[in-house]
Structures are given as C-alpha cells and as structure tokens.
Amino acid sequence: MARSKPKNTYLMGLRDALPFLLVAGPFGLLFGVVAAESELSVPQAMAFSTVVFAGAAQFAALQLMVDNAPVLIVVATALAVNLRMAMYSAWLAPWLGGAPLWQRALAAYVNVDQSFACSAIRFEQYPDWSVAQRMAFFFGVVTPIAPAWVAMTALGLWLGEGIPAWLALDFAMPVCFLALIGPMMRTAAHLAAAFASVALALLLAGVPYNLGLLVAALVAMAVGARVELWQTRRAAP
Amino acid sequence: MSDATIWIIILATGIGTFLLRFSFLGVLGGATLPDWVLRHLRYTAVAVLPGLVAPLVLWPEATGGQPDGPRFAAAVATVVVGYFTRNVLGAIAAGAVTLYALLWFTGLSI
Lengths: 237, 110
Hints:
The structure holds two protein chains of two kinds.
Chain A: H1 9-17, H2 21-37, H3 42-52, H4 55-66, H5 71-81, H6 84-96, H7 101-109, H8 113-125, H9 131-159, H10 172-184, H11 188-203, H12 211-235
Helix pairs in contact in A: 1-9, 2-3, 2-4, 2-9, 3-9, 4-5, 8-9, 8-10, 11-12
Chain B: H1 3-28, H2 35-41, H3 44-58, H4 69-85, H5 88-109
C-alpha cells in the first residue's frame, strides 16, 4: 500500500514495539510479585521468564503449582494456553520460511503475541520486503520487549509488590492489541473473521485450558476464508 | 512441590512452548503452501487477537470480572480510532485518554 520503502526495518520494529512495553512491563512485574509469594526460588522464577517466555502460560502454570496439581496437568495446561503460537508459526512460515534454520529457530523462541501482531500489520502493508528485512523487523519488535519482560520479573521478585491499581495498567494489554486490530480490518472478510472470533471466544470462555480461544480462532479463520471466496466469486465477471 | 519437580515443569513447559512456536516455521521452511491454506492463514491475526482480548474487555480481572464502563468505553474508542485512522499510536492514545478520563470522572461521582 505505502510506496516508500523504509530503510531500516529493524528500527521500525523497535519503534512499533515501544507501546507494548506498557504491556510486557507490568505483566512481567506482576509475574515476579506472584512468584515471590510462591515456593519458586529466585533462579526458578527467572528461568520461567527466560526459558518459557510466555506471560499467560506462566501465570497458568504458577497457579496450578501453588494448588499442587500433578506435573503433567501443569505442563499440559501451560502448553494448551500456548497453542495459539503454533498458529502464529503457521502464519509466519510463508513470510519467514526462506530464512536460514538458525534464524527461524531464534525467531521461534521470540514468537509471541506482540511480535506476531506487529508483523501481521507490517508484512501485509509492505509485501515487497525481503525475507531478511522481515526478519530484521521481527527481531526489532522483541528487542525492547524481551529484556523488559525478564528485567521486570526480577524487579517484581525483588519488590514483592505490584503497581498501584489506580494506574489501571491491567488494561494496557487489551488497549495495545485492540489498537492493532482496528487497522487490520481491511475487508469484509477480515471483519467477519473478527466478529466470529469475538462471539465464539466469549461463548466458549468457560472451556478449560484456554481451548475455547483455539476453537474460536480456527472457526474465525474459516469464516474469513469463506467470505473472501464469496467476494472474489462475486467480483469475477 | 519439590525443587526438582519445579525444574522439570519449567524445562518441559519451555521445550514444549518452543516446539509449538517453531512447528510450522521450522518444518515448512520455504515450501509453497496451497492456496486454500494461505487463504485461511491470511485471517490468523484477526481470528486470534480479537478473541484473545474480548473476555478481558467484557470481564476485566481488575474489577473481579464485573463489566466496567470506563474499560469498555476505552476498548470501543481504541478500535474505532484504529479502524478509521489506521494509526496504531493514535488508537492507543484514544483508549488511554478515554480510560483515564472516565475512571477519574466515575471516581469523582461515586
């Protein structure tokens, strides 16, 4: 859509990621606080944030560990919460698949909601980017976010208390992702998919292990693809 | 829960999460995918992200899951401004201003 090609996609990713510091920061801090109250040691809490590196799954796992759930249930639940990342991986494959294996492996490690969402906007906006430019953008997004996540976990562990409630930073995450969703609504097919996603996710909110979201997402993708087919058929002579 | 058990959970979750993230990107590589697959993948973002945040908007944890006027209005403002201006930062600003203004206002009136 836009004609001018940005020179440095890495810096562009870095810039796009900045608002998400408001998401990763408080979320990481909160994980540190909750971990400090649990039986996790400091190295274990830090390992969680660096090895697993997935906010929602970490909270789910920690909650179950505090409740003394069986190991298998803890791991399965955390992985179920992260299943959506396999969908991000599938989406990324056509865009980044041409990169060397080690780059794809590194990208997989930092394949999170933020890097996926920012890429979903920019890759489609600049379809003429090379694989290297896309990869640079992707790593640009996680450059501020990953260290912030880990550092704020440490700060939370050390402080042992959260952010005052009147700041309402709990809502930074919804606002940041909603801000990306608006510009994604380019066609009737995108709108239809988004509405299906919201309706089904709310309807299936009670399904355990976050699996309702997965069902909602798969159905919504099918809805988007179906509406796109209808539109192209109608447009055909 | 023993120390070793906790470490096992961290490592297993970490490895499993990496495999989920790597899966398609790692295995497919530069392979060309059939049209119908690509047509579905085009809607991944709009199929996952709205569903991910919808429950947080309608039933915020900060209010104990009770629907909250200021948060709902902020969500609407963010989407509307993002949709019409295509400006992500503008949308975030609209959401933040709406949220804080309404929280302040309702805080005063109660």
